[in-house]
Amino acid sequence: MALSTMDKHIFADSLALQPQVIQSSVKGLVTPTAITTTAKPLNRQQLEKAIEMYGPILYLHPDERYFNTSIEDFLQHCTLVDKKTKTKVKNPSPDSLPQKGDDAQYYLDLESAGKKGDFSTTKAYVRGFWQSGMPHTDVQFWFFNAYNGPGSLHINGLMMDSISSSGDINVAPLGEHVGDWEMCMVRVDNTTLKIIAIWLSQHSKGQFFSRDQIDHAFTFKGTQPIIYSSQNGHANFSRPGSNASEYRRIGGIPAGIELFVRNDTAASKFKLDCSEKYELVSADWLNLPTPKWVTYPFRWGPEGTLTRLNPVTVAEIIKAAAGADLAEFLPVSALTVLAGEILPHFIKGNINGPTSPSRHGSWVGIYPVY
Hints:
It contains 8 helices and 20 strands. It is 17% helix and 31% strand. The chain has 370 residues and is an alpha+beta fold. It has a domain at 35-69 and 121-287 and 306-348. A hairpin with a 6-residue loop joins strand 14 (224-229) and strand 15. The strands form 5 sheets. It has a 6-stranded mixed beta sheet with strand order 12-11-10-7-6-19. Strands 2, 13, 14, 15 and 18 form a 5-stranded mixed beta sheet that branches. It has a 4-stranded antiparallel beta sheet with strand order 9-8-17-16, covered by helices on one side.
């Protein structure tokens, strides 16, 4: 995808949209805090009203290959593997998933045909989070993808500190893994039933928007915020665009290179209206029955990243993409350092086969931010 020179810059007004960690937070986390002992929770009717008023409209990228899907569709393409007994169960049902066992005893093995997902079956899995003393309720909309596709880097070649060449590279298999949970949290005031905050998950962290940032950061259809899922990676953003992250630069005079990870988002015909297609799976204070897949304590795919690339290999890819004119000015040793900083964004020892939503800190109101 072509990228204009302007698209790579982060303008001053965009800094206002960066996550603000509220007073009740530790560094890098937005955490729940009991504020008043007289606060009352929403009843089920009020919670469902909030879902129907503020359920986000999620747009997938028009070139998406790995679609949101339902738990049922995913499991129809999986085999449950018991590493301890060496037994395998093909196409397990959501209610048959084990609830206990040794550490890492089970995992779900996905067949290739299941990677694309079935968007016609998808829905938002909704959790209401409230603790005694909280004057608000976090309405969490969880999204599931059977597979996370490869990442994409944008590279600018620099000559005398000016962009001389520009292009994108697909860094497959970097970023690829089985199973992908993402989430949009809408915080609702329990008294007024108005939105007071939104958090968007973006892989292992996310963006937090306070009340005074929301109108500037989001567009709405009526009362519903519109959000966008990034191509292949499925991170959530409030706007269409390249959503550059992990910016790195080396050199510039006489030559250099700069790059960033692309998180491309755009509107398309692939749209999920979470006010209509949802399943309320958890609200502790209402004592709702929780599906067994929610509390399944094992991984939704095999452990360990699929990636086998190292910084030297990635450096060679980056150098080749920069073009022949720059190659003589870009020592692989310097690019290896650059690539070594980018690789951790894609490669994590436990990235392949995420745990269930209930095992995430955000499930209990702890929202990691950049």
